[in-house]
Each structure stands twice: as C-alpha cells, then as structure tokens.
Amino acid sequence: MIDIYAVVLLALGPLLIALMMGIDRRITARMQNRVGPPLLQPFYDLAKLFRKDPRSTNRTQVSFALAALALQIGAWCVFALGGDLLVAFFVSGAASLAVALGAFSTRSAYSQLGAQRELLQVLAYEPILFLAIIALAWYNGTFMADLQDRNMLVILPLVVLAFIPIALIKMQKSPFDLATAHQELVSGVYVEYSGPYYGILKLAQWFELALLFGILSLFFWDGTLWMSVLGKLAMLIVIYFATILIDNSTARLTRWDMVRLTWTYGFIFVGVNVLFVFILQEVTA
Amino acid sequence: MAFDVVTDIYRWAENGTPVDTMDGGWLVLGLIILPAVLSLLCMTFHSGRSPRWVVIIAVAAIWAMVAAVAYLMLQPGYVQYPIPGTLADYDLAIFVLDLALAVFFAYVGWTRRNWPIVAMAVTIFIMTVYLDVAFQADQVDRLLLDRFGLLMLIITNVVGGTICLFALKYMEHDKAKGRFFALMLLFLAVMNGAVLSMELTWLFFFWEGTTFCSYALIAHERTKEAYKAADRALLMTLFGALCFSVAMVLLASAKIPFHNLMALQGSSQYLPFLAIPLLMVAAFTKSAQLPFQSWLVGAMVAPTPVSALLHSATMVNLGVYLAYRLWPLISEFSSLQTLLLLVGGTTFLASTVLALRQSDAKRVLAYSTIGTLALIFMSLGVSSDYGPAAAVLLLTSHAVAKAILFMTVGAIKHETGSQDVEDMEGLLRERPFLAYSLYLGVFLMLLPPFGVFAGKLILVEALAEQPWAAFIVAIGFAGMIVYYGKWLGRTLVDKGSPSPMQRTSNGITLPLGFLIVLGISLVLLTVPFLQQMLQVEYMVLLGNLLWPPGTGWWELPLDGGLLPLYALLALMALAFVLMTRWVRRPEQATTAYACGEKMDITITGQYLYSEANETKFRRAFEIIGVLLVAALLLVPYIIEEVLA
Q1: What is the pLDDT of residues A233-271, one digit of tens each?
Q2: Which of A196, A250, B11, B373 is the most buried (most CB within 10 A)?
Q3: Half-sphere exposure of B104 (CA within 13 A, CB side)
C-alpha cells in the first residue's frame, strides 16, 4: 500500500506545485486588480517552451540545465520514496549549484550577475533549511521521510515559520528575487536560456519546490491518513498564501539584507525553538 | 636479522605466543628504510641534475611493497601484525636522532633570530634527555601494523608516490632537484614510520621527522618569503612537539605504558589526564586547526608538489591519525568530545568564511583542507559509533581529491604561469583535460554521493544527537558550495577572445589520470572499502565494533538515515550520458542575448567582504581558537574529576 502512495506522490508532487503556481498567478493578479491567466497556465507555458526550436549559446549551458533537472528529480525521488531527508536536501543543493554553473558558462553580464546572486541565495537559505531538517530529525530520532509521524506543528512551530523566507527565495519572490530579478537582471540566471532548455529549468524548479513543500508537509501529522493529508495541505496553503502576500507588499532587498535577514530570522527561530523543546524535555524528564 | 610478522592474531592471543609467523617483517620495515636510503642517494645529484630514475624506482618499489603488505594484511581474519624482534635495541639510535633534530631546530631558530623556536627546541632537548635518563622503556614491540595503519600506508605511499612522479615534470627547471626529491622521499619514509609506530617515543621521533621535512620543503625556494612561511610552520609544529613531549613526561611519571594509553582510563589524577588534551593540541598543530591554521596557509609559497604532499598524503594526516588513535580514550569523556566538536566546528566555520575571500587557488584549497580536517576531528568527537567510519571516509577521499586538485592547480600554474582563480577564465576551452580534472576533484569534494560528501553525511546525521554543533557548521556547508562554485564558474566561461586548445604534456596527464581513476574507483567501492577497514573485531587501542555487521553493499547506513549510494551514482552516470548525448546533437549556436547589450565585458569574481574584514575575521577566529585550546587543557579535568 505504502508503495502505491509513494508512486502517486512521486507523480503528483510537481503537478500540484504547478497548479499552485497557477493559483498564485491568479491571486497575485487579483491583488493587483487584474484578471490573471487561466489556472493551468504553467502547463501551457511549459508545453509551448518544449515545442520551440532548441537554441543555446554553448553546450556547457545545456549540460548544466540537464544536470539540474536530473538532480532535482533525483532529490524528489529520494524524498517521495521515503528516503533520507538530508540526502534529498544535499542533492537538491547540488542542483542549485548546477543552475549557477550553467549561468556562469555564458559570457553575458546579466547571466554572470545572476549566477553570483544564485550562489549568494544558496548561502542565505541553505543553512536555515539544513537546521530545520536537523531539528526535525533530532526530535523524531530519524532522517527517513517515511518515518516522520508526529505533529511537529505544535512542537516546532517556529521552525515552520522559518520556512517562509526559504520559500520566498526558492519561489523567486520579492523581497528575495535577487538571482532572477526581472527588472534589473532581465531574469538573471535564466536570461541566456530559451525554448526547451528554459523549459528544462522550469521543470527543475517544479521538482525543487515539490521537495521544499514536501519537507514542510512533514511537520504535520494527525492520527489518520486523510486527516493528515488535509492538514498538510491546509498548512502548505497558509504558508503559500503568506509568501504571496509578502511578495506583493514588499520591494526587493539588497544582497546583504537578504543574507542578514534570513540568517538572523532563521537562526533565532530554529535555535529558540530547539532550545525551548530541549529545556522542556529536561524539566519533564 | 630477521623480523617476523605474526599472521594469526587469534592463536597468538589464545596461547600467548605467536604460532604462525612468516618472513614479511622486512617488507614493512622496508617501507621506512628504502625511501630513506634512496633519499640519501638523491642528495648526490648536484647542480640541477635530475634524480629522475631514483625517484621512479623508489615509487615503484614502495608501491610494490605496499601492495604486498596489503595483500598479506587483508586476508580474512588477520587484523594486526606486530613486528617483534630486537627493534627495542634501536631505541638508542632513535634517542640520538631525536636530540640531533632538536639541536637542528635550535640552530635554525638561532640563525633566524627566532627566540621562541630556540626556547622550544631547547626545552624539547632537555625533556628528551630527561625521559631517557629517568625512565625505563617498556620491553614491547616498537612497530605494529593494523588495518588503520595499513590505510594510512596506502594513502601516504600511493598518493604521495604519485605526487613525486608529478613533481618530476613540475620541478624540471628547478636548480636543486637532488635536495628537493631527497626531502620528498624522506617525508614518505618518516610518515610511514609514524603510522607504524605503536610506542610513543618512536612516534615522537617520526613526528619530529615530518616537522623537519615540512620545514625544509617549505623553505626550498630560499627566498625571504619562503623562509618566513617555513619559520611560521616550524614555530607552530614545534609547539605541538613541545605539547607532545610534555605529555610523554606526564605519562611516564604516572607509569602509564607508552604502548597502551588505555591505562589512563583508571587514573583519576590531573597530570596524567592532562596528557590527552596535550596530545590533542599536538594533533591540532599538525592538522592546522584553530588557532594554528595560519602555517598551512602560509606554506602555499612552497612549490605545488610540496603543497600537494603536505595536504593530501602526509603532514596534516598525521594529526588526524593521532586523534584517531586517541579516539577510544576521547570517547570515554564527553567533555573532551564536546571540545573536539567545538574546535572542529569553529575551524570549519572559519575555513569557509576565510576561503570565500581568497582568489589564489592554492589558498582556497588550503582553507578547504583545514575545513575538511576539522570535519574529521568533529567525526571523532560525535558520540556515535559511526564517527570513525566518517573519519576514515573523509580522510581517504580527501587525500585523493586534494591531490588531484593541487596537481591540477600546479599544472595550470606550470602551463599558464598563474594560479589565480580570476586568471582561469576560459580553462574549459583552452585546456579541457585540466578543466575536467579540476571539476572531478571539486565534485569529489562537494557533490553527493562522492566520498567526502558521504563522510560529511555520516557526520551530520550523527550530529542530530548534539544539534548545537549543527548550528556551528550550518553556514560552512553552504559556504563550501559558494567558494567552489565561484571558482568553477570562472573556468567555464569562454574568454572574450578565445585562444586555441592546448595539449597538456604526458608528465602531467599520466599522474593526474592515475589519481582520477583511483578517485572514481574509491567512490564505486565505498561500502566494501569501509567494511574492509572497519569491520574487524579488534584494533589497536580500539575496542568498539565500528561498522554495523550485515550491511548491504548498495547503501551506506547512517545514524538514523540511509544513503542510497549506488542509486545516486547511477543517477550521476545517467545525467552524464544524457548530457553528452544531447549536447552533441548538432545545432546552431547563438550568441549571448544579454538584453541586446555589448559583449565585451570584463568579468570579475565576487568576494563578499573586504580584505580589512578578512584580517578582522581571522584574528577573531584565532582568539576563539586560543580560548578553546585553553579550555581543552582545563575544563575536561574539572568536569570529569572535580565535579564528578
């Protein structure tokens, strides 16, 4: 039975993310007094990109786009099949490196700047995501995704909140959309990609976000499977809505403000939460 | 004289006398004697003549001997080979050589007007004499080979030998080749001696031998800069030697046998207990941990083969080796473990923060070495039994990866005249072989599921029991991706006006190619390798079962997790095949779009913070390091003995 769930999850994860992106665009449009595109627009976009002629500036660039996709799919598989969370996290981190390297390989000012910012984003969010996973595994005693069955929302609520800046960076949303800033860098790391190769990177991002929200979903569990799934979805929707709200109400920060903000916010939230639970355990024991 | 090797430890243990012996002891001894003798032969090559054939014969011979020893050692059931006989008679020779080294160091300090060096060398001299006069040496075997020793022998000789072969090409224009290769071979000899010594006085002699070789090799160019770096290295490693000899005096006065430090367990006095922290400080100096990190970074002025040898095959591994031998003792005291985690964690963080600012490729690699060694120390400080497995994996994979990286940087310097990251623009197009070996080296250091990554993962999952330490290393892991990513990024982009492709000479590609094959096979054989090295019932100074029995060959068990090793390797291979198939399809290449703007841009790297801040950060980390070392010497005793 578990295996069937795993396979369903495997296929469903990225599709759900794409659907969420469609909803996101509608909500954002409504917030800006527009009608917005159809709900399935992300799928239409991707289909159109893959129908275009392949054009690239060099072969290296394409290699790294493919590597990014393969690694993100691998990371998602590790997670969806109930594997080790840290392995999935590090494999996904390697994919971020591949995206940066792909952008580095083209002699274009925007692409280069985007790549350096992409690395800086990794520096900003990776430590926090890492600590969030450590906190989860520390309390549950295991890193395996399929063994996480405790309601951590009440035990580690601040860690859940620490996911918001991570989600903002990974979804390329304001105030942290530095690497792909469309106004100043003409979408930075993506600027030299077009057609199917751009599609590959888009698809890689679906898998990346699926992993991020997948890890976040582990923080909720409630006795029965259906209640758990509903609860998980509700939690994800709340966090997603929070990011849309922040995206539409803030301006882009500078590079240093991004690093400073995510580090202080993340370290304090995760640290205080872990310390609090630790003291509580010591007192009750 | 005949030195016998006991091959059947079980019967030996049962009956108290060796039953099956074989004439193989000379092989193990040969690993010390042969390189030392050939090193003397190299000294006879004067005025720029190259001792080419001596080096090639030496490397071939030590490889053959290591292969033979490994074959004997890896027979099922054989765990350790004491090398008995009359070696204790040579204690006098060791004593005299010890004194000679101390006098030499004092002389160096005198000529350089460096009084701390003189003071420390004289103190070491006095203490060596005192140890010899006041205490009777135990009648035990002086040398012993076990599986961990074998692993160290393989790393030292295989990786070190390859570096010597590489140096033949790299040093072709050097004026003092005889002296250079003599020191390189001597380094291998003393390193072999160090990992074979089972008794502290002998270990101390070989320990000092590596100090001598590293000093002389760093000063090889005989420029003002080289002498300055060599002095610094000597100052710091002599401080370690001083700690080492104080520890020996403390142990001797408490009647702790030098071949069995586990006897310390029962001791509740401060002075013998202090010996463990002192030995740990000695290990920190060799392995360039905070606050002693600066000598290794300064040593980058030496020719690149020297850096490669110091960083991958010899010097820095010795500190980790000592800590590994002390691990059973350290694991008895949670305060020692905590401080080891603190020193390792802080050093790892410092190494990453400082590496972000470097543009000299060798300095980036130096900080990366310091960081990886810090991770090894942390592995020995976690309270999980998986710690030593992580340490072994990190040590081995790092040795191969770092040798590849240093040799590549050396080759780039040799071919282009610069080792600055900013000058490596267009490397992929101009020198594809060197670019690919650079990428492989970095991937071995960084990417899942390669060796260093696997070791890192074992360590991190063990850290889940001590999450506070995870907070120290969190930024470090992300920082590693950034500083290596920046570097690779520079090599990928074509120059504004690309030059034609260059061929790399065979003297460089052959040694590099050999290490690349070695690195890849090490990744493929991670689990069998760990099983061979760790799944044994008994090791010298080690009582615990280090590797869970009955693990599958296809995955790496972790503390609370699992690394699907071969699934990830298959993914990597698939990605590689897909890449090469897809991108080789002919298609029209377009010029960069760049929003329609001009193409003749100058690309420079991003260094995140200013040089003034670099000095500030380094000082701050060094102060923290000094405080941690002071705490290491005092706090564990107070916690373990006074409060308990």
Answers
A1: 888 889 988 988 888 888 777 888 888 889 998 999 999
A2: B373
A3: 15
- Strands B143-146 and B80-83 come out as antiparallel
Are residues B474 and A67, on separate chains, in Cβ contact within 8 Å?
A: no
Condensed to tens digits (0 to 9), the pLDDT of residues B319-363 reads 999 998 888 888 888 888 999 999 999 999 999 999 999 989 999
Q: Tokens representing B40?
A: 């003397």
DSSP code of residue B138: P
Specify whether the CB–CB gap between B401 and B441 falls below 8 A: yes
Residues of chain A contacting B428 with CB distance shorter than 8 Å: 60
Q: Which residue has the higher pLDDT, A131 or B415?
A: A131
Q: Do B589 and A115 touch (CB under 8 A)?
A: no
Distance CA A164, CA A181 (A): 19
Distance CA B180, CA B174 (A): 9
Computed on alpha carbons and rounded to an integer, the radius of gyration of chain A in Å comes to 19
Closest by Cα among A14, A8, A11 to A209:
A14
Kindly provide the ipTM of the predicted complex, given to two decimals: 0.93
Residue among A87, A119, A263 whose CB faces B457 most closely: A87
- DSSP codes of every residue in A7-49: HHHHHHHHHHHHHHHHHHHHHHHHHTT-----TTHHHHHHHHH
Distance from CA of A91 to the nearest CA of B (A): 6
Q: Which two tokens stand for residue B252?
A: 């001797």
Phi, psi of A226 (to 5 degrees): -70, -40
| Count of Cβ atoms closer than 10 Å to residue B11 Cβ | 14
CA distance B165 to B383: 41
| Cβ–Cβ contact A107 with B under 8 A | yes
Report angle CA A210, A214, A220 to the nearest 5 degrees.
150
- Which member of B479, B493, B561 has the closest CB to residue A84? B561
Chain A contacts in chain B segment 456-475 (CB below 8 A): 457, 460-461, 463-465, 467, 470-471, 474-475
